[in-house]
Amino acid sequence: MHEPKSADSGTAERCQSQSEASTSAPAPQPRRFTGRRAAAAQQANSTGSAVVPSSSAKPARVITQQVPDDILHNDALNEAAAVLPANYSFEIHKTIWRIKQKGAKRVALQFPEGLLMYACVISDILERFADAEHVFILGDVTYGACCIDDFSARALEADLLVHYGHSCLVPVDVTTIPCLYVFVDIQIDIHHLVETIKLNFQPEQKLALAGTIQFAASLQAVREQLSPLFSSLSVPQSRPLSPGEVLGCTAPVLKQEVDAIVFVADGRFHLEAIMIANPTTPAYRYDPYGRVLVIEEYDQEGMRAVRRRAVEAARLAGSFGLVLGTLGRQGNPRILEHIQGLLEKRGLPYTNVLLSEVAPWKLALMEGVDAWIQIACPRLSIDWGEGFQKPTLTPYEALIALAEVPGWWEGEQVAKPGTEAYPMDYYAKDGGVWNSSYHRSSKRSDKQNSSPGPRPASVVSAVS
User: Fold this and answer.
1) Is residue 163 part of a domain?
2) Which residues of the chain have a pLDDT value below 70?
3) Which cofactor does it need (predicted)?
4) 3-state secondary structure of 177
């Protein structure tokens, strides 16, 4: 395989100015709602499907979302916000407006480690311009959107929680206090990415674009610019995630033949999820900071072999330990209850353990357990499974060990080792019964379930 070429022969540099990124205006959307007179005229001249509001209908409740000019054009506020990186969208004005709308006096802020360096500046700005009496930063580790800590924020009597750097994995109508998600969209040098793709791939090749939520908007802009040049250029989606967005535990399965995945991120963790979900598709990672395109590899066969040994060892276990993650919203009690029921049905004893950090040394302290099932993050088992003294399974692997679903290596048609379907659908709307999504439909046919293997009759819904 050829070595990827960079479209930039100069030194690598971070894109600092939002004006450097190329942007495209979104395509105009068809009107779905119109006035009664205009709709009547439209229906007389066409077969359109405009919705005509009833004259007797109650006026809809309108919530003003537009940020007022006195906030947008506040010179002191804009000067204070100017110390933040120009290409990072922290949505300062929107956040201040939301705090004022809600009359929030106690505001909690939650950041992933990569954004903590800006926490104190943002806290000072909100405290000064949003009329909040107390703005405090939640210091516990935040790995992803599953770690949103509305429980701690509520315990601190916060009126609003602002969660930075992740998408709305846990809906705001589920959290215990009002929450605002700020994705922190990062503007990158789109022109450089476009030219790099053009330099390394042929127009007849079929490509899939994906990345982390910070670059989701950039992916759409890249697609618009490259679509006229490439025969197939997709931005796959695993709902409820945004198009192109990938989590460490949730990634789309590519539904059509794709020659390569181009993944935009500065690290491998999220990329590995889409590589596991699509083991036969070559993957390239574009680092938007170093402005480099590299070929990435993953030991698909080795990972599946390690996980298979853990599952087969757990099949012989006489007792289980069930770990419910308490880091934010990682642990789903509904999945815990489902697995408890399966163990009780089989007469297998189990012990419940609540942990915020699932560490091998900590589980090793607890004796009398033959195998562990951790309901926190699947990647703990996938990435670090060999570090645990006893088999430590994900909910999906637990259902295999308990003969609820077949293993990825089992069945009439066994795929080549390393190419078997290992689902990465932990928060996908249409994932398996081991899934932790808050967006799952309680009524859906088996045809809608894209993960391999038969499904038990019962469906595990998320805790509300």
Assistant:
1) yes
2) 1-3, 5-65, 412-414, 438-464
3) [4Fe-4S] cluster
4) coil
What is the distance between the alpha carbons of residues 404 and 400, in angstroms, rounded to a whole number?
6
| Farthest-apart Cα atoms in the chain, separation | 77
pTM for the structure as a whole: 0.80
- The torsion of the CA quartet 128, 129, 135, 140, rounded to 10 degrees, works out to -110
Cβ-contact 170, 438 below 8 angstroms: yes
pLDDT in tens, 109-131: 999 999 999 999 999 999 999 99
Distance (Å) of CA 422 to CA 107, 262, 363, 378: 41, 21, 26, 12
On whether both 232 and 136 belong to a single domain, the answer is no
Residues 6+ apart with CB under 8 A from 291: 6, 8, 12, 13, 189, 192, 196
- Enumerate the β-bridge partners of residue 291: none
Radius of gyration of the chain (CA): 24
List residues bridging with 233 in a β-sheet.
Answer: 207
| Domain ranges, residue 122 | 69-86+88-186
Give the count of domains, the chain: 3
Distance between CA atoms of residues 122 and 80, nearest Å: 9
Q: Which residue has the tokens 């204070």?
A: 80
